[in-house]
Write a structure and sequence with these properties.
The protein has about 325 residues and is an alpha/beta fold. The protein has ten helices and 13 strands. Helix 4 packs parallel to helix 5, helix 6 packs across helix 7 and helix 8 crosses helix 10. The N terminus is likely disordered. The structure holds alpha-L-arabinofuranose. The site of alpha-L-arabinofuranose has 13 residues, from helix 1 and strand 10.
Length: about 325
């Protein structure tokens, strides 16, 4: 490929899927003269993630950037292995969406020593040394949780008794799970009748969302509201609620985050009551940043995506044009 020798990708033995596994270790711009970007993705846990991966792959293609894509299958150790492999291959830029927030300093220092700029996308890290990465591109997850909580405070303003909430958290230790929990808790703090009676991870997946909701329905005598950190878990929970003979959206109100098509359809159908948007279409902005950092240009330390919220009417209006 590109008339130069192939580089063997060491991470292959760990079962990681490097979709573009060719390149030249000595040429960081790739044989075709394009920028080589090493990207480590979280996995394929949700509709949001699928849309995010598609956006990154398509944008790299149209920007003429050679993408080495690695799927970490939800494991931090796989991401660290992939990043080390990218360093070994001397890619021009490394970007990744960290599975969890902590534990990145060592590998980020290795990238810095190798003079390879790193861009964080979608999720951030908790490193105190901000020089270890060039920029963060993604959402304000605390704000998302806060919007969900504020909606609930308004929605239950006239309720007389306690409002019992069960919470399906995202993957343990991930930035969206930590921040959406915090934002929601902050927003409901002054509404003493709103009580989070159970909170557990549903790992951002439909299957786990369903399983944990089944357990909540057995262990809790009264559930008024489900707060799910993403649509996929809410959709799994809807199956559990229906199987228990209850009506999602009516007997148990549901508020979630993402606004992927399936979630929006459930909102339009009245099975979800409110969704806070989290935009997965980060590819075009990411490729723009990749070009800038590889040219040595300064970029803002943090770039947040513009997002909105949806009620049933807004979801019905948006669905025909929804891309993901
Ligand atoms: O990091 C973004 C989150 O990860 C999305 O909200 C969730 O669906 C995904 O798995």
């Amino acid at each position: 490929m590109f008339g130069k020798k192939l580089t063997v990708v060491a991470v292959g033995v760990l079962g990681l899927s490097l979709l573009t596994a060719c390149g030249n270790a000595a040429d960081s711009t790739g044989g075709a003269g394009s920028i080589v970007l090493g990207f480590s993705q979280v996995g394929a846990e949700s509709g949001w993630r699928t849309a995010n991966t598609k956006s990154i792959q398509e944008s790299a293609k149209s920007a003429g950037i050679e993408l080495k894509f690695s799927d970490a299958q939800q494991k931090q150790e796989n991401q660290i292995t992939a990043i080390r492999s990218f360093i070994q291959q001397k890619v021009k830029v490394i970007a990744f969406s960290p599975v969890v927030e902590s534990g990145w300093d060592t590998v980020l220092k290795e990238a810095k020593t190798a003079n390879i700029p790193v861009i964080l996308t979608d999720r951030s890290v908790d490193s105190s040394d901000k020089s270890l990465y060039k920029t963060f591109l993604g959402s304000d997850f605390v704000a998302e949780g806060k919007k969900a909580g504020e909606w609930l405070v308004k929605e239950t303003a006239s309720a007389s008794g306690d409002v019992n909430v069960v919470e399906l958290q995202g993957s343990t230790g991930s930035a969206p799970a930590n921040d959406r929990k915090k934002g929601f808790a902050d927003a409901i703090a002054s509404a003493s009748k709103i009580k989070v009676v159970a909170s557990q991870t549903g790992e951002f997946t439909r299957a786990k969302g369903k399983e944990v909701m089944e357990a909540f329905l057995k262990s809790q005598s009264k559930i008024d509201v489900l707060y799910a950190h993403n649509d996929d878990m809410a959709l799994g929970a809807i199956e559990a609620i229906e199987a228990a003979g209850k009506k999602p959206g009516t007997d148990i109100k549901i508020v979630s985050v993402d606004a992927v098509k399936d979630g929006m359809t459930a909102l339009a159908d009245g099975k979800i009551n409110y969704i806070v948007e989290c935009n997965p279409l980060l590819g075009p902005q990411l490729m723009d940043l990749v070009k800038k950092v590889s040219a040595g240009q300064e970029v803002p330390a943090r770039i947040e995506t513009q997002e909105t919220e949806f009620d049933q009417a807004k979801a019905k209006a948006a669905l025909p044009q929804r891309q993901y």
